[in-house]
């Protein structure tokens, strides 16, 4: 229907002769093709030019008759309706610096305002005093006061009205609490009766705060590993909270769509800082949440405009920046900028003067306003425009000062949360404008140094006491300013009764972590039989040996549904594409296209109930997915077995911080570092050549790391890993296995194999033979792991054939576990230096083993060096130190001198030093085998894939 005709369009250089480009902030002549965000629909024909002209004339008439503000309002309403009707018009990514939800559309606040205000004041006091007391002389462990002060209202509206505990019929929500706000969560648990004063006084003293012989302590931040009945999600390594929350929300849907658990009523809330949003991990996964329509996810960004040292965007506006970013990523954005005191001012702002001031004032200025007083705000904000100055001419400076920001107004927060929980089709972000150090006094609020401030001066304590209205006298504060009293009314106090009742109705206390409530059936002997038989005459790399074992494990009908394969877009590299048509790739939208390989047996298949989490080229997202799946036994009471397989170089090196967070979250599961080794992945170059991941893995105490050489070793390791993580007494560990892409004939498991040695980290795999040599032959021991086993056996053969030396070959399945056991033994000996102690596994195995010991792997020498102090006698390590490079396997191994001949020469050198053989043997062997000539190397399979 044509638009109604209005006055004729203005001509010349009037208001209608230009249009504002919102995307670039410039003016463009109407006669030019100016930029419109997301582009003009130039591919669409104008089927009715006359009607188009009428619409344009109507807009010009609105501008002339009602002014730019009226025209802007009409255009925004049209864009809003266009989005509702889904006609494909791009939406704005930036709106005015005002609340998204107008006052007229806010729901009534359902709580008791007086009681909730009283609760917040108690929490503010106890949270700040806990940190203050932790800074007392003789302790001085510090903490953070200001972050929780700025976000108390954001949390309390959630606790009293939205956050559902684990006993809720819907299963409960997952809350990612901002790490620096942990004092507030402890303060709430104190009011609830879950913690007492002794606990609070143990803040940040996890091994030293004893009360009556009992350790009473609280970790500094949300650390489930340190407080495993309280915290669920570690968040203080900033940026990991946002990405982990996104994949947690995805995993909730994954469980639901696969029929494992009804998670339809569960919501993920992530409380974040505006400074934290500069982390790449904070923003990098937003598109996934929008693509998968994760409307079970809400981000609450505490926009107090400050990061750790100063303003987040002193010259800009972080709320506006984040709004555009999230809108562009497809999120629903709710801006919570101003408290209710601003409502009448905005309602009377008919010509947009106040909104213009709000839009144009920088964050740096907003921060400065709250570090001063009402007179300063009047002069430097309202008086910048005579129209806004007139709005508050009858207001006192105190009344101006009491104008609050939206994140401190409980009614506004409630309105935003309610809108977020009711929105469908996309995730929601709430951008809440707050003040860092709010309510703490002029020395804290909005100050650049407030993040590092850990205590209050006596005058600050008295002023704070007055503002929160707690029953503490000046004399009490003056008696010991370092230890002001906590305040906890009795359980009969109306505030405490209200608090307890709200949590009962919402399903219990939060945060809360629960342990194992369900156990899964693990595969029996049959699943491992094929791996133990070897590969016959077929050459199979350990990567494929692992994949074949996984297929056998997946044949167990009870166990298979619990497996969560996680692959970052390298399934074919790892030989896992065979899973595509069987268990399929998870996609909440199914597969709405015909794949190009549809006719192939191994066609790419996506399904709403698919089992594989295929994250794309996204290791960070993969680890977040691994964390969600691996902690599901606690989060959901549903144990799942994540198996994350990835390029080994892009594991601990690329996402090590996320793996630490996974360990903190008590995650269980298997990480498979495929295409491992510095010389085995031929031709790929420096950034693909992994020569150090076992060292990086060894720094994470929760990681059990193995470097198996054969398929049967993998079978025993996997079986024991399943037992340890998912058996009757589950351990909170993660297994890391390195596997290779070099094909070899996988041997059958030897008769009477020492399974204990495989699991503990070392066993004799190929004793030296005395056939053809005398019993007095010189001896040596060769230790090797992973793909290096073939070079060790080659060296064993060369030494015997050319020099009559008998060497034993040992398979070291885990240098890291051997070292870990050795360190534990040393610790016991330190505390009982003159007692009787069992020798370490390395000492037991090598005790009496004759000759020097030479160790090798496809990693840097630091890997076998891990066990040096427990190896009796002479010990030499070989390794691939330095950068990797593109070349053949044989050439690379000769370059690093870790191949068979290099190992043999190292043995000869050590025997010569010991006077066991002539020195000429070592020199002659090095020349004969051309150790300095990289083109002469021949160790290993020259080609072949996994």
UniProtKB/TrEMBL annotation:
The keyword Ribonucleoprotein does not apply. Its EC number is 1.2.4.1. CDD domains: TPP_E1_EcPDC_like (cd02017). Residues 525-743 form the Pyruvate dehydrogenase E1 component middle domain. Its cofactor is thiamine diphosphate; Mg(2+). Keywords: Magnesium, Metal-binding, Oxidoreductase, Pyruvate, Thiamine pyrophosphate. Residues 177-335 form the Transketolase N-terminal domain. The keyword Oxidoreductase applies. Mg(2+) binds at residues 274, 304, 306. It catalyses: N(6)-[(R)-lipoyl]-L-lysyl-[protein] + pyruvate + H(+) = N(6)-[(R)-S(8)-acetyldihydrolipoyl]-L-lysyl-[protein] + CO2. Component of the pyruvate dehydrogenase (PDH) complex, that catalyzes the overall conversion of pyruvate to acetyl-CoA and CO(2). This is Pyruvate dehydrogenase E1 component. It comes from Tessaracoccus defluvii. The gene is aceE.
């Amino acid at each position: 229907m044509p638009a109604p005709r209005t006055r004729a369009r203005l001509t010349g250089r009037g208001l209608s002769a230009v249009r504002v480009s919102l995307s670039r902030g410039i003016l463009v002549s109407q006669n030019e093709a100016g930029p419109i965000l997301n582009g003009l629909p130039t591919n669409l024909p104008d089927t009715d030019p006359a009607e188009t002209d009428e619409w344009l004339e109507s807009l010009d008439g609105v501008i002339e008759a009602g002014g730019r503000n009226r025209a802007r309002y009409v255009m925004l309403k049209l864009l809003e309706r266009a989005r509702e009707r889904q006609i494909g018009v791009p939406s704005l990514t930036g709106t005015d610096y005002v609340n998204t939800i107008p006052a007229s559309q806010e729901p009534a606040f359902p709580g008791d305002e007086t009681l909730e205000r009283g609760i917040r004041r108690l929490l503010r006091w106890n949270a700040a005093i806990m940190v203050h007391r932790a800074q007392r002389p003789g302790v001085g462990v510090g903490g953070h006061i200001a972050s929780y002060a700025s976000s108390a209202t954001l949390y309390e509206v959630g606790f009293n009205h939205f956050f559902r505990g684990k006993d809720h019929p819907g299963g409960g929500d997952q809350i990612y609490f901002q790490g620096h706000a942990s004092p507030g969560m402890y303060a709430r648990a104190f009011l609830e009766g879950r913690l007492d004063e002794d606990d609070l006084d143990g803040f940040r003293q996890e091994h030293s705060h004893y009360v009556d012989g009992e350790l009473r302590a609280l970790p500094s931040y949300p650390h489930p590993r340190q407080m495993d009945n309280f915290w669920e999600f570690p968040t203080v390594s900033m940026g990991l909270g946002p990405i982990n929350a996104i994949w947690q929300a995805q995993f909730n849907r994954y469980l639901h769509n696969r029929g494992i658990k009804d998670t339809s009523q569960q919501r993920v809330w992530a409380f974040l800082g505006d400074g934290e949003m500069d982390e790449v991990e904070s923003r990098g996964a937003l598109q996934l949440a929008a693509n998968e329509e994760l409307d079970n996810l809400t981000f609450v960004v505490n926009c107090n405009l400050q990061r750790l040292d100063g303003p987040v965007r002193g010259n800009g506006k972080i709320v506006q920046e984040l709004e555009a970013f999230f809108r562009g990523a497809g999120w629903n954005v709710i801006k919570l900028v101003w408290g209710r005191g601003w409502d009448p001012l905005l309602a009377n702002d008919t010509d947009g003067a106040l909104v213009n001031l709000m839009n144009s004032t920088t964050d740096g200025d907003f921060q400065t306003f709250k570090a001063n007083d009402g007179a300063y705000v009047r002069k430097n904000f309202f008086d910048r425009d005579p129209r806004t100055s007139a709005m508050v001419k009858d207001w006192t400076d105190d009344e101006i000062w009491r104008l609050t920001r939206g994140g401190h107004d409980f009614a506004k927060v409630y309105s935003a949360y309610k809108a977020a929980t009711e929105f469908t089709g996309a995730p929601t972000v709430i951008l809440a404008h707050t003040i860092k150090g709010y309510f703490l006094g002029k020395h804290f609020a909005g100050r650049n140094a407030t993040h590092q401030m850990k205590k209050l001066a006596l005058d600050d304590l008295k002023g704070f006491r007055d503002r929160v209205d707690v029953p503490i006298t000046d004399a009490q504060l003056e008696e010991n300013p370092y230890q002001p009293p906590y305040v906890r009314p009795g359980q009969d106090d109306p505030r405490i009764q209200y608090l307890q009742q709200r949590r009962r109705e919402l399903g219990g206390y939060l945060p809360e972590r629960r342990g194992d409530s369900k156990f899964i059936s693990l595969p029996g002997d049959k699943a491992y039989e094929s791996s133990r038989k070897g590969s016959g005459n077929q050459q199979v790399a350990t990567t494929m040996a692992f994949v074949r074992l996984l297929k056998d494990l997946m044949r167990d009908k009870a166990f298979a549904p619990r497996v969560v394969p996680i692959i970052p877009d390298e399934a074919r590299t790892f030989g896992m594409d065979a899973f595509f048509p069987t268990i399929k790739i998870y996609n909440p939208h199914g597969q709405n296209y015909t794949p190009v390989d549809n006719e192939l047996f191994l066609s790419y298949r996506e399904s709403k109930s698919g089992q594989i989490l295929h994250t794309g080229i996204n290791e960070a997202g993969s680890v977040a997915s691994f964390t969600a799946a691996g902690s599901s036994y606690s989060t959901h009471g549903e144990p799942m077995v994540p198996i994350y397989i990835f390029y080994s170089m892009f594991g601990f090196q690329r996402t090590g911080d996320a793996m630490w967070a996974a360990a903190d979250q008590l995650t269980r599961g298997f990480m498979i570092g495929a295409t491992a080794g510095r010389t085995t992945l031929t031709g790929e170059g420096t950034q693909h050549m992994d020569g150090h991941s076992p060292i990086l893995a060894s720094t994470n105490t929760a990681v059990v790391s193995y470097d198996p050489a054969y398929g049967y070793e993998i079978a025993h390791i996997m079986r024991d890993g399943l037992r340890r993580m998912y058996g009757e007494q589950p351990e909170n560990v993660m297994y890391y296995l390195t596997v290779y892409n070099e094909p070899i004939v996988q041997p059958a498991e030897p008769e009477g194999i020492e399974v204990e040695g495989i699991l503990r980290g070392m066993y004799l795999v190929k004793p030296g033979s005395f056939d053809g040599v005398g019993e007095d032959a010189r001896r040596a021991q060769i230790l090797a792991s992973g793909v290096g086993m073939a070079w060790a056996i080659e060296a064993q053969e060369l030494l015997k054939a050319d020099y009559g030396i008998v060497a034993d070959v040992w398979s070291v399945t885990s240098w890291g576990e051997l070292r870990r056991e050795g360190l534990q033994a040393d610790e016991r000996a330190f505390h009982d230096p003159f007692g009787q102690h069992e020798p370490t596994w390395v000492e037991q195995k090598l005790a009496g083993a004759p000759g020097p010991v030479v160790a090798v792997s496809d990693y840097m020498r630091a890997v076998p060096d891990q066990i040096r102090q427990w190896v009796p006698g002479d010990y030499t390590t070989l390794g691939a130190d330095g950068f990797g490079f593109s070349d053949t396997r044989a050439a690379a191994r000769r370059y690093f001198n870790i191949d068979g001949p290099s190992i043999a020469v190292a043995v000869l050198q050590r025997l010569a030093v010991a006077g066991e053989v002539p020195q000429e043997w070592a020199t002659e062997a090095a020349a004969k085998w051309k150790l300095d000539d990289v083109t002469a190397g021949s160790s290993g399979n020259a080609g072949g894939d996994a």
